[in-house]
Amino acid sequence: MTMMKAETFAEIASLRERNVIALKEAKEAGARVVGTYCLYSPAELIVAAGAIPVSLCGTSQNPVPVAEKVLPRNLCPLIKSSYGFAVTDTCPYFHLSDLLIAETTCDGKKKMYELMGEIKPLHLMQLPQVQDEAALDYWVLELKRMVRRLENAFGVKITEDALHDAIRLCNDERRSLQALQDVCRQKPAPISGQDLLTVLHNRGFSVNKRDAIALVDRLTKELQDMAVAGVSPFSAKTPRILLTGVPVGIGSDKVVRMVEESGGNIVCFESCGAYKKVEPVEEGTADPLLAIAERYLRIPCSCMSPNQGRFELVERLAREFRADGVIDLTWQGCHTYNIESYSLKKYLQERSGIPFLQIETDYSESDAGQLKVRIEAFLEILHRSLGAT
Amino acid sequence: MTRLAAGIDIGSMATKAVIFDGEVRGEAVVPTGWEPREAGLRALREALVGAGLSEGRVERVVGTGYGRVSLPIFDRKVTEITCHARGAYHLNAGTRTVIDIGGQDSKVIVLNHDGAVADFIMNDKCAAGTGRFLQVMAGVLDVTLDGLGVLAANAEPASLSSMCTVFAESEIVGLLAAGAGKEAIAAGILASIAQRIQGLAGRVSVLGEITFTGGTARNPEICEVVAAHLGVPLHIPANPQLVGALGAALIGWDA
Ligand code: SF4
Ligand code: SF4
User: A21 in a domain, yes or no?
Assistant: First the structure.
């Protein structure tokens, strides 16, 4: 996007590459690195242990063929990609990780983790799949187990003070991420969904959270100024899309790209690295571990049953971001999101009646032609209701 | 208002063109082959010749279908979803659902009262439930598509468990070897297509009159089996293969 302040965005766009070196240097200076794969991994505990959390979720097709030598082909591409990077040791962030944190979310992931645990030390958290009181008690115990694992692995003590500090830091990060995404409430949005995703994806590789927060805040400020000045790559007639469903990142962004190449704009990502992430942990409570547990257990992922929270979140965000349509992206082989798509569509139809499109695909480009027809036809529906020709 | 518009629908198997000026003036169907561009131009030329018109008279050309990206003469490109809906609604304003079995995919489209697309669903990546599937299966039985319908008429369908083109093919070879009649197998193939369509239709709210479009709908036996599975009569246009091109021409004419 030509209008955006080039330097800040360029700085963020190259973050992933530059941070590899920073992370390597930090490690040589004695820092510990903990790799995570999911939004349920409590970053606060890692930070409180003095370690650096990095996101390892596989978003590239490259290592998938190698992963398929071991994993079934009809498995979710995110799982194959994540495992593929581990088994080929081609992701520098994986390579530099001392410990992996994983959760029993969907069946595919939890069985894959059994294999991944043979490659690198892996701590598996038993995640309850319901969000009630008993589950919370259990989840608190799981957080305590993770605290012990981190303490033993790194020879540190996780104090209450450290937890409070970590909560504040992670909340500040959430505030910063929310402010960034909220610039797209503006109509038209000052940034494309593709660029927004680049920022959201790349900041997951930051070595120093405070620096990353400052950088994102700077970008947000620039975007806010652009919005005030009415600068945007889009027009008031551009259909605004809310994207929900499975995690997306750079490499697994083909649907984002196609939507925007076809004349739409993704104004909100209700997905893991994006809006699902912004809810803060309660600060200053007597029991910080409980506060962390409560916040994480509330995450509305399809591996929970029931998962009413997601329906409400999508409906609310579609309204607040003035979306014209909702696209539900589901990876092939992801049973939980694929099944839930039916209920989500019904929920939205009964309430707002907002146009809805489910797209089931994988990381490869083999279905590009068919996807384009679907996406363009969906945008034609939205254009018609926007009164464009 | 445009006085003469052309719609060109470049599908994976056939390319169709319609010339419209308030009514259909010319139409043509040519095989797409390996040159979608050439096929598009040829279909347009043939339709114009049929209408007794010269190319220069066409004011707007709208392209649709898989090959829609490949022609520079298009003033506008519109997806086949919107074009089929537009064409079917024009032919029968009672249409609230369009079922289209194309060469490469099949789709169910739901229309509002004003003919606008409200929702749609397409089959996934594989060829199951498409014209391509029928073509391959007809090939295994060594008949044409029309011949497949003739064979299937009045036969009790053999049950085919696989909808995947590759597996269904070997299943049919096996059935033939086991002495099953070609008629029963042909009927089984049609039933499998109809089931697939029924499954698709079940995922959107199908209401009102259903118009069946696409080249496959020229085959009366297939229409019958699909209607029987859906449990409702189908509206079959006089030339179902041309509905997408007609819709494209109408969109050009509207502009
Ligand atoms: S979709 Fe669910 S399982 Fe996957 S990363 Fe997000 S929270 Fe974790
Ligand atoms: S996208 Fe679905 S199948 Fe894939 S890892 Fe996430 S929850 Fe599991």
Answer: yes
Query: What ipTM, to 2 d.p.?
Result: 0.86
CA distance A68 to chain B (A): 20
What order do you get walking across the sheet with B14-20 strand by strand?
B24-31, B14-20, B5-10, B60-64, B76-77
Residue A265 within any structural domain of the chain: no
Q: Is residue A294 part of a domain?
A: no
Over residues A236-287, the pLDDT tens digits come to 999 999 999 999 999 999 999 999 999 999 999 999 999 999 999 999 999 9
Q: How distant is the Cα of A245 from the closest Cα of chain B, in angstroms?
A: 18
CB B30 within 8 A of CB B37: no
What b/e readout covers A224-252, taking b as 16+ CB neighbours within 10 angstroms?
bebbeeeebbbeeebbbbbbbbbbbbbeb
Q: What is the CATH number of the domain that holds A126?
A: 3.40.50.11890
For ligand 1, atom 2, name the residue with the nearest CA: A301
Structural domains of chain B sorted by starting position, each given as residue range(s) with its CATH number in brackets = 5-80+243-254 (3.30.420.40), 93-236 (3.30.420.40)
Residue A302 lies in a domain: no
Best residue in B12, B119, B205, B251 for a mutation probing chain A (most A CBs within 10 Å): B119
Chain A contacts of B203, Cβ < 8 Å?
Answer: 342
* Number of other residues whose CB lies within 10 A of the CB of residue A282: 14
- Residues B63-102 pLDDT 10s: 999 888 778 888 999 999 999 999 999 999 999 999 999 8
Is the confidence at residue B161, as pLDDT, over 80? no
- Helices A133-154 and A288-297 meet at what angle, rounded to 10? 120
Taking the model in full, what pTM does it have? Answer: 0.92
Residues in contact with B80: Cβ distance below 8 Å, sequence separation at least 6, in sequence order? A373, A377, B9, B11, B64, B65, B100, B102, B107, B244
Q: Which ligand is nearest to the CA of A40?
A: 1
- pLDDT single digits (tens) A165-207: 999 999 999 999 999 999 999 999 999 999 999 999 998 888 9
Q: Which run of H or E residues covers position A210?
A: helix A209-228
Question: What is the domain range of residue A93?
Answer: 14-161
What parts of chain A have a pLDDT lower than 50?
Answer: 1-2, 389
Structural element, H or E, at residue A358: strand A356-361
Work out how many domains chain A is built from and give that number: 1
Identify the closest residue of chain A to B82 by CA–CA distance: A377
Task: Report d(CA B246, CA B193) in Å as an integer.
Answer: 25
